[in-house]
Amino acid sequence: MLLEQQADRPASESMPASLWLHLRYCPYCSRYAKQTMLIAEWARASAARQTSTGPALSDAAKARMRERLAAG
Fold this sequence. Notes:
The protein has helices at about 1-10, 15-25, 25-55, 60-70. By secondary structure, it is an all-alpha fold. The protein is built from four helices and no strands. The relative contact order is 0.09. Helix 1 (about 1-10) runs parallel beside helix 3 (about 25-55) and helix 2 (about 15-25) crosses helix 3. The longest helix is centred in the middle third of the chain and has 27 residues, at about 25-55.
């Protein structure tokens, strides 16, 4: 849970010493921490792209959605 919270915090906030020590010696949690940070970074980048340009759907996909909404 601490790793998940750490991914959403600014980098300036300090990590608890016990977590830092555990990550130094546990390869599994260390890998999980890196993956969590990467996923959080991707999610922020994706959210930024979608808010600035809107979700990207092809014209064909939009047409299919309109047809299904009209039919059903």
